[in-house]
Design brief:
This protein is mainly α and 98 residues long. The chain has a single domain, classed as Arc Repressor Mutant, subunit A (Orthogonal Bundle). 63% of the residues lie in helices and 6% in strands. Strand 1 and strand 2 form a beta hairpin. The chain is globular.
Length: 98
């Protein structure tokens, strides 16, 4: 288990966690994001809007947030880590479903 930094910044941590959720899990609604982060819906909304502003997320017509262009570029990276994730993710999802 990693030790958190001495001077952790909660808002940065929350934004990075949201970006990770969007990248690896798909879509998120504000209420779900708030619940998973343990923050108010207004806070989750502001964090998601910042991710949209910086192209880490997009919001569709049903008000659902999805991975944006920046995260999509990372998904198509040729790095070994990205390749391993793309191969392992369907199997991990299958295990979770079971």
């Amino acid at each position: 288990m990693k030790t958190p930094p001495t001077y952790a910044i909660a808002s940065v941590d929350h934004a990075l966690r949201l970006a990770t959720m969007l990248r690896f899990e798909g879509s998120l609604r504000v209420a779900e994001a708030a619940e998973r982060l343990g923050v108010a819906q207004s806070t989750a909304h502001r964090l998601l809007q910042m991710l949209v502003y910086r192209d880490f997320a997009v919001q569709d017509e049903t008000r659902v947030y999805r991975a944006g262009p920046v995260l999509e570029l990372a998904a198509h990276s040729l790095s070994r880590t990205a390749l391993l994730r793309s191969v392992a993710l369907p199997h991990m999802r299958s295990l979770v479903d079971r």
